[in-house]
Amino acid sequence: TMPKEPAVLRQNILDTTAAILACGIDPKKCFLFRQSLVPEHTELAWILGCLTNVPRLLRLPQWKMKRASQKSEGTVGLLTYPVLQAADILLYKSTRVPVGEDQVLHLELAQDIAQHFNKKYGEFFPVPKAILSEL
């Protein structure tokens, strides 16, 4: 949600990929891809954003904290980031999502969005459940 220098962003992508591989993820057994190259993430985020009301997003604690830390009124990207996260989860019809305590409310938003979408258009998205880590 914050502007990054293109060179720094490219290096961050490479560093993250290296860290994933160093953790033992085997690319022969799973798919590794750069999410930003998959337009369906942002397309679904747009659709889901049209089903999500602004007051709900304004109540999220992360919005309030990050907006305060940016010493501004906040950006649209910051406000709608949880909808993009919901799209990231729902696009793959995820049923279980590992989250930390700080992301539980964002997952609850994804659950609500899935339920709202399903009620309006028919059963399509599973409602994802949290897998909480103690770490």
TrEMBL record:
GO terms for biological process: mitochondrial tryptophanyl-tRNA aminoacylation. It is an enzyme of class 6 (ligase). InterPro entries: aa-tRNA-synth_Ic, Rossmann-like_a/b/a_fold, Trp-tRNA-ligase, Trp-tRNA_synthetase. Signal peptide: none annotated. SUPFAM superfamilies: Nucleotidylyl transferase (SSF52374). Coiled coil: none annotated. Belongs to the class-I aminoacyl-tRNA synthetase family. This is tryptophan--tRNA ligase. It comes from Zosterops hypoxanthus. The gene is Wars2.
